[in-house]
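Subject: Interface between my chains keeps coming out wrong

I've been trying for a while to get a sensible model of this assembly. When I model each chain on its own everything looks fine, but I need the whole thing in one frame so I can look at the contacts. Pasting all components below, labels as-is. Any help appreciated, I'm running out of ideas.
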Amino acid sequence: MTNETHNDIAPEISAAPKPSDAQNADAQNVETQNADARDDTRDDETRSDEKYAQKPGAPRSEGGYFSGEEKGEKAKSELSGDDAEAQMRRMSRRSFLWSIVAVGGTVGGVKWLSSRRLDSGVPWPFRRVLQTNEDIAREILAPRRLAPTFARSQIDPIRTNGLIGLDDWDASEWILNVEGLASGETRQLVMKEIKALPRIEMITELKCIEGWSVVNHWAGARFSDFAALVGPATQSGQSPDVKRKPDDVLEYVGLETPDGGYYVGLDTATALHPQTLLCYEMNGAPLLPENGAPLRLVTPLKYGIKNIKRIGTIRFAPQRPADYWAEQGYDWYAGH
Amino acid sequence: MKHLEKKHPLAIRWFHWVNFPVLMLMIWSGILIYWANDVYRVGWGNHTLFKFFPPAFYQKFNIGQRLGEGMAWHFTFMWLFAINGLLYVLYLAFSGEWRQIVPGRGTLREAFQVVLHELRIRRAPLPRRKFNGAQRIAYSSVIVMGALSLLTGLAIHKSIQLSALTSFFGGYEIARWLHFWLTIGFCAFFLVHVLQVARAGWNNFRSMITGWEIVSEPESAQPETTKAAK
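Reply #2:
Try treating it as a single job with all components included. I did that and got this:
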């Protein structure tokens, strides 16, 4: 494997200049002068060996590589035989000490990261990065951009996943509670009022955070039409105008199942997106209980975890609402 | 006669050794994510040669039920992977180092000869250059694969905002499939790379750390060339 470790002379001894080196001195000096002009920091690596400090031409393991010294021809050391090996040993020792520090630092860094205090189920540094990713996404991407729609021939069968918050279901008792309104009161809506809103149909792709996706046909009312109907509280305190001043609506929307077992938070920009529906039909039939009957949220802009089934309460809020999965280590934004 | 020869610039050594743990973390967190919908396999029809991944694999490495954690790591270290990769490519472009890596005319032929040599079929010695044809192709490929991993990753992660990119890759599902197989490609590269580095020996490996390599020049080279010239 190696042809230089057989040399058992201690590096300090073998590094001492030999008479024959004097012949090379001129050539070395040429290179060293260039090197010195580039970099005055070479002291630190020669400190360990006084004799070497006087010996020019010792190749330096660092420095000067950005100065283009290698363009065209190869950098070469004129050291010969044992000196080359001794010099290499010195550089290796130093480099490998650095390697140990680097490996230790990396392992320590990873351990540090994974052992930080949890912030909603994930070590806090990751929560910060997820928040930054969200800020970047909301800042530079266009929240009004439409998701692709598909042809009828591309519709997939329904794939049911996630039944949290869907226990104890009594259709006759369902009512939609709406909070955070400009009036300051809680309003209750029945299905007939939702269905009275313009009916929207769309064929979009629902993406599960697990990594699969299905194209489904959805029918329901636009969330923005619903918001205009109920009149959410505004940031300015003025009377709401959802269609013309959507940015003035309180910044967040929280949605909950009737039993409170499942809950999601949305940014209002997503909630008011034209493809965000309060949906009552799926693939051409009324919603099944396991798919969120009688009313669920559908938004192709977010992973399925945000597409809450069986909405019992909708709340406009100035602060970020609780979110079932975000509390367990997932990204709160979860947007595409 | 031995001398030291500069082989790998400091910048490239940094990019390389930063990339190593970052890519490992990306692959590991990627597997945590993949577990939640582990649909890929090697096979046809009802025949499955290998399923990604067998339950024993998940058990051994404690992969299951860690999707959220995987996503958090993945969407954190993606920044390091992207920035490091971008700086590497910029460095290659502006330093001229790309000339050592980008394949040229004859690279494919040379790569073929290298493979024959490695398989002990062809005796002729390998070219004495920084990288031979096979290395050029391998090292260029991983750069392209890295770029494709970033792009397919973006196509999955921001499939609405970047829906043009997602459609370019054939849609959400195919982008995910590509993203997965690129990762398998990285793993394959890693295995061959480590094997070849082990075979090449200490002097070569050390040069990726110190930057320098000990080169022996045969002392009798001069007379022989003279003879050959006659």
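Reply #3:
Confirming on my end. DSSP finds nine helices and twelve strands in chain A.
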